[in-house]
């Protein structure tokens, strides 16, 4: 005998309460769900594992680990802000999904970030003669795109792609860099007095008069 408050509300039952107390009702529901899953899909339902506070059970590797960012990845949609699988298992599942759905991590990256696949990448590289579109280095691997519009521009080597990024795709900065490399800002040692030299830049103009 238990108080009615220990029973779930059920408008279809006499007295407005279920026939089983809450713990028994929950246990029967779990058993019923496990049987339906087994009959329908032929698989077993994951069993609940008791874990201490501040820890989580990873169902893939079956380890109980501290619930910290060192062991579980962050997830806005996950319980307590963390994913349901430890980092190694999370990464393995992600790799398997990319391979199964996209044919590999490379295909996934190309499609997600640039909207192309490996076939289009290979065709673009062939149009460039198999070399970087800027420095002619062989076998470039990086897709260059317009950061403002997202349009793909060509295939570059690591150095050229990184260089454009560092200059923020700014033509003015690149023109100034070319002028700089031509030596218009090169420092030189200039004779300003017999036996006395001064390090000067051409931007400073001619050295001072030696008449004095």
TrEMBL record:
<protein>
    <recommendedName>
        <fullName>Recombination endonuclease VII</fullName>
    </recommendedName>
</protein>
<dbReference type="InterPro" id="IPR004211">
    <property type="entry name" value="Endonuclease_7"/>
</dbReference>
<dbReference type="InterPro" id="IPR038563">
    <property type="entry name" value="Endonuclease_7_sf"/>
</dbReference>
<dbReference type="Pfam" id="PF02945">
    <property type="entry name" value="Endonuclease_7"/>
</dbReference>
<dbReference type="InterPro" id="IPR044925">
    <property type="entry name" value="His-Me_finger_sf"/>
</dbReference>
